[in-house]
Write a structure and sequence with these properties.
The complex is a heterodimer of chains A (502) and B (546).
Chain A lengths: L1 H8 L7 H24 L7 H22 L3 E3 L4 E3 L1 H27 L5 H19 L3 H19 L6 H32 L4 H9 L6 H17 L8 H8 L2 H26 L4 H23 L5 H17 L9 H36 L10 H4 L1 H15 L6 H14 L3 H30 L14 H19 L2 H7 L4 H4 L1
Antiparallel strand pairs in A: 1-2
Helix pairs in contact in A: 2-3, 2-5, 3-4, 3-5, 4-5, 4-11, 4-14, 4-19, 5-6, 5-11, 6-7, 6-11, 7-8, 7-9, 7-10, 8-11, 9-11, 9-12, 10-11, 10-13, 11-13, 11-14, 12-13, 12-18, 13-14, 14-16, 14-17, 14-19, 16-18, 16-19, 17-18
Chain B lengths: L1 H25 L5 H24 L10 E9 L4 E7 L3 H19 L9 H20 L3 H10 L1 H11 L4 H30 L6 H10 L4 H18 L8 H8 L2 H26 L1 H28 L3 H21 L3 H32 L10 H4 L1 H15 L5 H12 L9 H30 L5 H4 L9 H19 L2 H14 L2 H4 L7 H6 L8 H8 L7
Antiparallel strand pairs in B: 1-2
Helix pairs in contact in B: 1-2, 1-4, 2-3, 2-4, 3-4, 3-11, 3-14, 3-20, 4-5, 4-6, 4-11, 5-7, 6-7, 7-8, 7-9, 7-10, 9-11, 9-12, 10-11, 10-13, 11-12, 11-13, 11-14, 12-13, 12-18, 13-14, 13-17, 13-18, 14-16, 14-17, 14-20, 14-21, 16-18, 17-18, 17-20
The chains are: A mainly alpha (502), B mainly alpha (546).
Chain lengths: 502, 546
């Protein structure tokens, strides 16, 4: 829509249709779903999930052709770029979106919630993420961010008969808008100093001496803080537990993986393309955010009784791990590239293992009717398959080889150690201690599921729907494969933004 | 055949158990008999391949890595799939492939509660992959991955099939070892970056440590990280507290594997990685390692004397025995490290056997409280004799395997490597020798209380208490035979290890300064830390023991 308006108002810039094909396909499917809903009402309802799933798969086709083609496409004077970095992330978003649709299928039907709108909004949010991966300009970053956030506010409140869900929706909305406002203010400061919204232009202006301006510093701090909210880094994490708990669980999975990844993407683009030269400003900021997120997230997670809240805090701690490489990214160009790969690797692996964990939680909670950790006790006796899967995801999150998570953590440690700076080593030690703390609660859940006696009298097995089986299958497979053959993920995530920025 | 073994032998021996586990995973849980057969056949096949590897192993070149496979694995981080077998790994790999089938045979009819043979056996097989992989890996990242793979199955084995306090013990075991390995990983990584090596392969890192002259301080820190990682696994005093809990709570088979193989991963790490890669740091750390080792010997022995539970007593005896192994390693001599590897194998056989016995006794008496036991020789004479045999072996009776682990380790402390304080190590030697007396004390006392005398009233008429069964004999006979065989002919192990150990130590540690003139010593180009130059003068006064 935004693009259309621009085309009318200005002289039409040259458009590379191939580069925009994924977005166009996704948009068409979203529109199609809305239209079908209007035309056929209830009759179309059962096909919506399948249709949106197929739509996402169809979007992957142009992505594939772009990947095979491999040339870097720069659109709109550098405001929108399709390169390896953006393609990898778009693929992660689409895969995560697909798994979320698999997770939602039965959940939404069983709860008797609105379906067509749900999938329409999900696709719209996904569209925002896909755009975010290519955005290299403050305005498109902001538009993408709002496009992905606003549908998410609605989806969080989807269980509208449940006050908790409503509370979560409102909370998420208010906090989100507040963060957007802060970020927007930061962006306006950046624009004020540099006179351009294009990130590489900002980088040029920093190089030419505007970097010393204190207004620039303030702008960077505000923008980073805004995205710290999006990725739920301490101290901007307070919304996460309540929202995660109140939202429908598939939406929680979506927020914890895709939405967080989108925040990271924007952060990466801003830091590497825009502010790379000013590493003395953002490095300490990220260092503090990282150390705080890891420590606070893990310590609070230790006390949680509800698995979804626990996953929220564990997600905060994982955020700390993910941004840790950025704390030394300004050391040298090589370190910067490695840090970038490390973050993307982590995002890809994290998406698989976290979505998998939520898939198990959704299935088990459907049976037990509650998300209290105690209700999972003895799951090994009534749901052995799910227990094994959950074990894989939990220990992958903890970073135990040969499960995917180890490579993600390994990459983080590698970058922190490469920099050779005392600060890097210190953060590595903080991270090492935190992995042990995290293991405690992950292993406790696993132990509870395996070793404790079930609270329930009847031990009939859990019914698990085909779509959940496929979601679990995808996640288990990816988690294991990435762990045993990390080269699979490493060869895609070896991308660079710095060559472009400098 | 030889070609096939050369390129595939180690990969097959490492991953066959995993394949078996995968097949079992796909088979429904109800088919218990099929699961047992698949697990046994898999482990026997692995043992067979292990035997083939031994037969084709070139014992005249044990210092050379054999059956080497070098394939690209994770290019992005320069980590490679490099596996190889030399004289140091060989005995430990063979020990592993021997113990696992015996454990499966032993479990055949008595799976601990809550049964579920499928999962139990899958865990054992995954464990086997991890253990063999650690012993053959020649790349730091690969080593780390295998080292960690071992954790999960053991965690579940303790947490699900363990004793009453299993929840606490399993988590404690997990957290302790993970903490160590996290620091170990940081050490590995910093070593890699400081040396600027092209890959994580051990030999290349070792070359680069010399070539890049990594600073002394960095070496000391890195060795410290590895020391924590491996030392917790061994476990050395004061990091040993997870061990008694884990051993006491683990199911019999878990204890056996833990004692027989898992503890060796730590000592193996010292011998394979820490010392060869960072010999200079090793020289500075060695006295402290030696000190902790002898504290472990004495402390472990005293704890044994205080125990009221037989299984816990055996667990603490492991702390003491691993103290001897670490003492041998800390001398940094060819002699001491050979003794240490012999000690590892002997401890694996003997303590593994003792845990088997403890498990069988628990099954009969439903308790292992020593004061309630008694008269085993009356009620189950064969088991009583086996207990006596193992106690003798464990206390280091000449003619049985334990002797060749302990005695040379003590002896080696008389004459530690260049650069180590001779007087300190001789003190250690005396203290360690006292430790053997204590060992005799607690083991004989255990034997006296458990096996001699008449059965206690509560068990006197218990029909449940019978002698060793056929499956038990099948599981035990190979261990008993090996304890005797190694005791009579220890060269079975030394033959393999000697060349490899010698080659793994830098000449600076091992050259005999007395045989060289001052000029010759100067040409050796050894760093100051080995103390070669100031060694000569005062050393003549103290006559060298051979």
């Amino acid at each position: 829509m935004t693009t259309n308006l621009m085309i009318v108002a200005f002289e039409r810039p040259a458009i590379d249709w191939h580069a925009l094909a994924p977005e166009i396909v996704l948009l068409s499917v979203g529109v199609l779903i809305t239209l079908l809903d209007i035309l056929f009402l209830e009759k179309a309802r059962p096909y919506m999930a399948a249709l949106s799933g197929l739509g996402i798969l169809a979007t992957a086709i142009p992505l594939l052709t772009l990947g095979i083609d491999g040339t870097e496409r720069v659109l709109f004077d550098g405001a929108y770029v399709v390169d390896d970095f953006s393609l990898v992330l778009k693929a992660i978003f689409l895969l995560a979106g697909y798994v979320v649709i698999l997770l939602s299928t039965n959940y939404i039907v069983d709860g008797d919630y609105w379906e067509s709108e749900y999938y329409g909004l999900l696709l719209a949010s996904l569209m925002g993420m896909v755009m975010m991966a290519s955005s290299r300009d403050l305005i498109s970053v902001f538009v993408a961010l709002e496009l992905l956030s606003i549908p998410a506010y609605l989806m969080v409140a989807w269980r509208k008969r449940d006050p908790k869900s409503n509370e979560a929706g409102l909370k998420y909305y208010l906090m989100g808008v507040f963060a957007s406002a802060v970020m927007l203010y930061g962006m306006s400061l950046l624009f004020g100093v540099s006179g351009t919204t294009i990130l590489s232009g900002i980088a040029d202006s920093i190089e030419s001496g505007d970097g010393s301006s204190s207004v620039m510093t303030l702008g960077i701090v505000f923008v980073v803080a805004g995205f710290a909210f999006k990725v739920s880094a301490v101290p901007f994490h307070t919304w996460a537990p309540d929202v995660y708990e109140g939202a429908p669980t598939p939406v929680t999975a979506f927020l914890s993986v895709a939405s967080k990844a989108a925040g990271f993407v924007a952060l990466l683009a801003l830091i590497f393309v825009g502010f790379y030269e000013l590493s003395n400003i953002w490095e300490p900021l990220i260092w503090v955010l990282s150390a705080l997120s890891m420590t606070v997230g893990n310590l609070v997670a230790l006390r949680q009784k509800n698995i979804v809240r626990l996953m929220a805090y564990s997600g905060v701690a994982q955020t700390g791990f993910m941004i840790a490489p950025l704390a030394v990214a300004g050391h040298s160009l090589t370190t910067g590239d490695q840090a970038l790969s490390a973050v993307i690797t982590y995002l890809a692996i994290y998406a698989a293992m976290n979505l998998g964990a939520f898939a198990v939680i959704i299935t088990l909670a459907r049976r037990t009717g509650t998300a209290e950790i105690d209700s999972f006790a003895g799951a090994f006796h009534f749901a052995p398959g799910l227990t094994v899967a959950m074990t894989i995801f939990l220990f992958s999150l903890a970073g135990i080889p040969p499960l995917g998570g180890w490579f993600a953590k390994f990459e983080v440690f590698r970058v922190l150690a490469t920099s050779g700076e005392a600060w890097g080593y210190l953060l590595a030690v903080v991270a090492a201690i935190n992995s042990v703390i995290a293991l405690f609660y992950y292993a406790s859940i696993a132990r509870k599921m395996w070793a404790d006696d079930s609270k329930e009298v009847e031990l009939n097995s859990v019914d698990i729907t085909p779509s959940l089986v496929s979601a679990l299958g995808i996640c288990v497979l990816v988690t294991l494969l990435f762990g045993i053959f990390p080269q699979l993920v490493a060869r895609f995530t070896e991308v660079s933004l710095l060559a472009l920025g400098t | 055949m030889e070609n096939l073994l050369d390129s595939w032998g180690l990969t097959v021996v490492t991953f066959s158990p995993l394949l078996g586990a995968l097949v079992m995973f796909l088979l429904p849980k109800e088919k218990e008999y099929e699961h047992k057969v698949i697990a046994l056949v898999t482990s026997l096949w692995v043992a067979f391949v292990g035997l083939m590897l031994l037969i084709w192993f070139d014992l005249d070149a044990t210092e050379r890595l054999q059956y080497v496979v070098d394939k690209s694995w994770i290019q992005a981080i320069h980590s490679r799939y490099v596996v190889g077998l030399d004289g140091i790994s060989l005995p430990l790999v063979l020990l592993t492939v021997l113990i696992v089938p015996l454990c499966i045979v032993y479990s055949w009819n008595h799976f601990p509660e809550p049964k579920n043979p499928k999962t139990f056996l899958i865990l054992i097989l995954v464990l086997e992959t991890g253990m063999i992989g650690t012993f053959v890996a020649q790349d730091m990242v690969l080593f780390f991955v295998f080292f960690e793979v071992v954790l999960l199955p053991m965690f579940f084995m303790i947490a699900v099939w363990g004793g009453p306090n299993r929840r606490y013990a399993s988590l404690k075991f997990f957290l302790y070892t993970l903490f160590g390995s996290a620091l170990m990983l940081v050490s590995f990584l910093s070593l890699f970056f400081l040396t600027g090596a092209e890959s994580f392969v051990f030999s290349e890192i070792a070359d680069n440590v010399v070539a890049h002259a990594v600073s002394r301080t960095a070496q000391l820190w890195i060795f410290g990280g590895m020391f924590l990682g491996f030392g917790i696994k061994v476990p050395m005093f004061p990091f040993h507290t997870w061990l008694p809990d884990a051993h006491t709570e683990a199911p019999t088979v878990g204890s056996v594997i833990l004692a027989a193989v898992l503890l060796k991963l730590g000592t193996y790490g010292f011998v394979r990685i820490a010392i060869p890669l960072l010999p200079e740091a090793a020289v500075e750390w060695a006295p402290w390692i030696g000190l902790l080792a002898v504290i472990g010997i004495i402390y472990g022995a005293f704890c044994c004397l205080a125990q009221t539970d037989m299984k816990r007593l055996i667990a603490f005896s492991s702390v003491a025995h691993m103290g001897f192994v670490m003492l041998g390693i800390s001398t940094l001599t060819d002699f001491g490290i050979n003794a240490a590897i012999m000690g590892m194998v002997a401890h694996g056989l003997i303590t593994g056997m003792l845990f088997f016995l403890a498990g069988s006794m628990k099954e009969r008496y439903h308790t292992l409280e020593i004061k309630r036991l008694g008269g085993l020789l009356v009620q189950a004479p064969k088991m009583g004799w086996i207990l006596g045999f193992c106690a003798m072996a464990s206390l280091g009776l000449p003619g049985l395997a334990g002797f060749w682990g302990e005695f040379p380790a003590i002896l080696s402390a008389y004459n530690p490597a260049n650069g180590l304080p001779v007087e300190t190590f001789r003190t250690f030697m005396v203290v360690a020798a006292l430790g053997t007396v204590l060992a005799a004390g607690y083991l004989l006392w255990l034997l006296q209380r458990a096996a001699f005398g008449t059965p206690k009233e509560e068990f006197a008429e218990d029909p449940n208490i019978h002698d060793a069964t056929k499956t038990e004999w099948i599981a035990w006979a190979p261990l008993l035979a090996l304890i005797l065989a190694l005791g009579i002919y220890p060269n079975l192990v030394f033959r393999a290890t000697d060349g490899a150990v010698d080659a793994s130590l830098t000449p600076c540690l091992t050259i005999d300064v007395d045989q060289l003139s001052h000029e010759e010593i100067e040409t050796t180009d050894c760093p100051e830390v080995y103390g070669l130059l100031d060694h000569g003068s005062d050393h003549h006064a103290v006559s060298k023991g051979s």
